[in-house]
Amino acid sequence: MAPTIPRAEALGALAAALFPGGAVASIEPLGPDAGGDKAVGYGRPLRVTVRLPGGEERRFVFRTQAPNEFGHDRRADRAEGALLAYDLFGRFPRHVRALDVGAVAADGRLVSLGGAGEFWLATGWADGTLYADDLRRVAAQGAGPLDRARADALVDYLVRLHAEKLEDPVAWRRAVRDLLGHGEGIFGLVDAYPPDVPAAPPARLRALEERCLAARWALRARAGRLARTHGDFHPFNVVFRPPGPGEDGTGFTLLDASRGGAGDPADDVVALTVNYPFFALGHPGAWAGGLRDLWRRAWERYLAGSGDRAVLETAPAYLAWRALVLACPRFYPHLPAPARDRLLGLAERTLDAGRLEPGEADALFAAEGA
C-alpha cells in the first residue's frame, strides 16, 4: 500500500507545477475544527504556502483521506471521494477550485490524474467455458458425473475460502450495509425495476425491501461471522477448464471478486446455489432431471464441510438480493412473469421464515410434480 503522506520534495514538485517558479515556504497540518467543537473530519489536509520568484505568496490545500467507518475504509472509497471532489468543486459559484487530483505512489511521488478520463483494469485471460453454459446444458440434458464433480469442487473451494475468519467490526457492518444500500445491492436493484414489471409491482418490491431492512438488523449483530468471501460467486464468474492432459475437468478460474472480499459466507453460497433453480425455471423437467440434485448436493456438502449451519439463518436477505437480480428485466429481459413470481415468492417465504430451508426450492416446481 502506498503511503498516504507524500515526501516533502513531492509537494515541492506539485507546488512548482501549480505555480510555475514557486517553491514551498511552509507546510502546516489543518485540524477538523480550530475552535475545538468538531472532533473528526474525513480528510487529512495540509496548508501549503508557496513563495513565487517575485516574493508573492500563494496557498493551496493538499488533502488525503483517512480510513474510517463512514464508507472510507477501502482505498477505492477514498479514491472515489477525491475524484468526485475534483469533478464537482468547479460547478459551484464561490467554491474553492480543485487544482489537481492524483495518487501517492509507493515511493512517495505524486501521480496526477487530473487529465484522466474513465478508469480501466487489465486482467489475465482464463481459458475454458463459463459455468453458466454447464447449467444451460444440465437444464436441457440432465446432470452427469462431471456436473456433480464440478458442483463439489465449487463448494469445496468455498468451504476453504470461508475458513479464513476475520475480526473487523467495521468491515462487517459495511458488508451488511452494502447488502442493502449499495447501488448494486437491494436498494439499487429495486430502483432498477420499471414500475410496470409483470409480477414485480412497486408495492411488492417495497414490501420485499422492508423485509430485508428488518433482516439487516438481525445480521448487524453477528460480526463474528465475518469471513473471506469472493463477493460475486455466480456461474458467469466461474470458468471451468475442459478435461484433458493433466485436467480432470474440475479445475476452474474465478472472475470479478467484489465487495471488499469480506462478508457473510451466505453471500457466496447463495450466489452459487440460487442459480440451480433459476436455470430450471422455464425448462419443464430440468429441476427433477439434475438441477435439484445439484442444489441439494451443494447445500448438504457445504453444511457438512463448513459445519456452519448458521448460514441458513443469515441466508434470507442474500437470497432476496440474488432473486432481485435474477428477476430484474435489466439483467434477464426474457424471463417470463410466472418465473419471476416464483423467484420473488421464494425470497419472500424465506425472509418470513427467518431461515433458508433448502427443501423449500421444490415448491417452485410443484406444478411439474418435482
Automatic annotation (TrEMBL):
It comes from the Bacteria. The keyword Signal applies. Gene3D superfamilies: 3.90.1200.10. InterPro entries: Aminoglycoside_PTrfase, Kinase-like_dom_sf. Transmembrane segments: none annotated. SUPFAM superfamilies: Protein kinase-like (PK-like) (SSF56112). Keywords: Signal. Residues 58-302 form the Aminoglycoside phosphotransferase domain. It holds the Pfam family APH. Residues 1-25 form the signal peptide. This is Aminoglycoside phosphotransferase domain-containing protein. The lineage of its organism: Bacteria, Pseudomonadati, Myxococcota, Myxococcia, Myxococcales.
